[in-house]
What we know:
Keywords: Cell wall biogenesis/degradation, Lyase, Signal. One of its GO terms (biological process) is peptidoglycan catabolic process. The protein is α+β, with helices and mostly antiparallel strands. It has 2 domains: 1-141 and 212-269 and 309-419, Barwin-like endoglucanases; 144-209, no CATH class. The protein has helices at residues 54-67, 74-82, 88-98, 150-153, 213-217, 234-243, 271-277, 288-297, 302-306, 392-400; strands at residues 35-39, 99-106, 112-119, 121-125, 134-137, 144-147, 158-164, 167-170, 182-184, 197-203, 206-209, 227-231, 245-250, 255-263, 313-318, 338-340, 351-357, 364-373, 384-390, 402-412. β10 (197-203) and β11 form a beta hairpin. α1 packs across α2 (74-82). Mean pLDDT is 87; it is low at 2-31.
Amino acid sequence: MKRTSFLLLSLTLWLAACSSVAPPGKPSPGAPEGVRYEPVAFANLPGWGDAERAKSLDALRESCRVLARRDGWAGACSAAAAVDTADSAAVRRYFEQSFAPWRIVEAGKDAGLITGYYEPLLNGSRVKSARTPYPVYGVPADLAVADVTPAQRAREQLVLRPAGANRYAVVEGKVSPSAGELVARPREFAIDSRTARLKGRIDGNRFVPYYPRAQISAGQGVGQAEVLAWVEDAVELFFLQVQGSGRIQLDDGSMLRVGYAEQNGYPYVSIGRHLVDRGELTLADASMQGIQAWIKRNPNRMDELFNVNPSYVFFRRLGETGGGPLGSLGVPLTDGYSVAVDPRYVPLGVPVFLDTTWPLTASPLRRVMLAQDTGGAIRGANRADFFWGFGTEAGMYAGRMKQQGSLWLLLPRGVNPPA
Length: 419
């Protein structure tokens, strides 16, 4: 979703599994540079004995719709289906017998930033009006994607060939294009280090970066994009893009659910951090609510502030899932039990034990969460975005959550952390 949540948004996954287990305190075979995974006992997890696990098991069953097809997961997922969630002792036994915890350490630290996100509710209409002037865009017809490798990204020039609808692939061994081919210069693109894609558009025989937020907001490119709805509030629309999905209450009484479809290729830049760096907000006030209050005090600077973040999210209509919005894993998120993670370090779909605190307090918040989403601002092994659910109360918690926390991977016994 975010990520979907955008603090969200963006979006690859992988899982490598094998039967060997790394010695305590040593990096797992093939562990990402600077990150190690240390096997520990459940007794070493803070507050494990007091954690509520029934809803965690429900969320895990959603993940198992994907995980059960991966090597080493069939047994754990099959066993999950047979556990009575009303029997707390049985649920605890299931986790302890089926999984092994792995402490995540990055650059010598076992803690990182835990933020929050939610599914917002906006008011809108299917038609533009003085009350609803702000468009929620689908994917522009001229937005194209080129798949490149890290080595190809380092080259001065690439030749691209069509590889499907609005998709292009590198033609190896060529520096000049033939008819129907394009030239791309990777250095022109603001590349997200987590993805091997260039997001762009066609300009003659060149593949060039897509428009940044300021130009899109001024109408560039989106003349070829469907407008899914028109909404009342520009600030709420901006945060809909940050969250990655939401619901729009339309004036005909119907509800439209929208989710992340594509993004313009620019990395997410925090407008809260921008205001802090300029001395216009304190770090304590750089929450969603604090930013909204700043905009109310400075309405003429709203567009200037939004354009600090060049990233722009395009949406698609979502059907009713019967639960939360769909995360990057492709399953509905569970309120309070799903997190967005950086899939370079935490395999998408897996359970993780989270040790953090409730927003703006020192009160412990400890539970098994499911890594079911990703987000543009979620970078790092001990970095997570906590999904609070739908509506105003969820938004209150999400907007104020900037806590320190630690993560432990819970992997089926015999399965190693990611390579």
